[in-house]
Amino acid sequence: MKPILRLIRFPNLVIVVLTQYLLQYAVLIPAIKKMGMLPVLPHFEFFLLVLSTVLIAAGGYVVNDIEDVAIDRLNKPEHKRIVERIYSIRQSWWIYWFLTILGFVISLYLAIYVKNLGQLLIYPLAVFLLYAYSHWFKRQPLTGNLVVSFFCAFVAWVVFYAQSLAPIFSFFMKTHWLESVQTTFVGYAVFAFFSTLFREIVKDIEDAEGDLAGDCRTLPIVLGVLGSKIVAALVGVLFIGFIGYFSFLLRGSNSMIKILILNLTVTLPMLYALFLLIKAKEKKEFSFLSQLAKAIMLSGLIFIVVMKWA
């Protein structure tokens, strides 16, 4: 993979695109068409919304690598480091500002298109939070983990918010027409939040040595590995409880297959992750657990399909 694609975490951005397009075209558009309405954002404008989200995320990855140069010398193998090894810090900043400014221009166009300039505030707020995460929050216990988790939930929320700008849509929101749509969006946002939070804590344990050298005060540095494992386990248990609650919502009307798919693709892997978390001691074990947690996060796409099918 080309260095620039590795710098912006291209596979992660593909997941963002898939998530937003699934939510838009598998969940939201069919519901809007049932009401005889048109979406607030047509195909091209929705593409621009997704692109602006991708640019926010890509910029966040770049600035995170810039801020983590010293830490990554310990946490990452030489061949995985992009900033400083392939792109100088100055070049990396230029890439960051190009992504950020392009995203802002797109957001300005969309705000004008929907005649709501207040929407424009969302973009700089998201950019600032990701910069603050890289510069301050990620060095504090749990704060940075929560910021990243909220951003992953934001990926779903922004699609729903973009369509809810229409007054007629707001009216229908007060009826039962879109109850299942709301359930899917809220459900995915909660899914994304808990699965991301679990992985972020595991990653902090994996990277504790480099973070300590970088003068960070992440959860494992403040509470120790055991304390961090307990917090991660609590998040995992809450996550499983959430999936159980949604399984309850799906009950009835020949829904056993949906419940089975949801629990096979999410609950069982999460239970296995908790088992590995209890046993894990070495960095390589936490590294494997981090990859498993990422796979669980990807199962959110299955969650969307199951909820649509519901």
Report on this structure.
The chain has 2 domains: 165 residues, Orthogonal Bundle (Tetracycline Repressor, domain 2), CATH 1.10.357; 133 residues. The chain has 14 helices and no strands. α7 packs antiparallel against α9. The chain is mainly α and 310 residues long. The model has no long low-confidence stretch (mean pLDDT 86).
Continuous helix count: 14
Largest sheet: none
**Strand content of the residues, in percent?**
under 5%
- Which CATH top level class of the largest domain fits? Mainly Alpha
Low-confidence stretches: none
Distance between the termini: 38 Å
Short characterization:
The chain is an all-alpha fold and 310 residues long.
List keywords for this structure.
14 helices; 2 domains; single chain; 310 residues; mainly alpha; Tetracycline Repressor, domain 2
Layout of helices and strands, plus pairs?
Layout lengths: L2 H5 L2 H25 L8 H25 L1 H7 L13 H25 L8 H14 L7 H21 L3 H7 L5 H28 L1 H6 L5 H31 L6 H24 L3 H16 L1 H10 L1
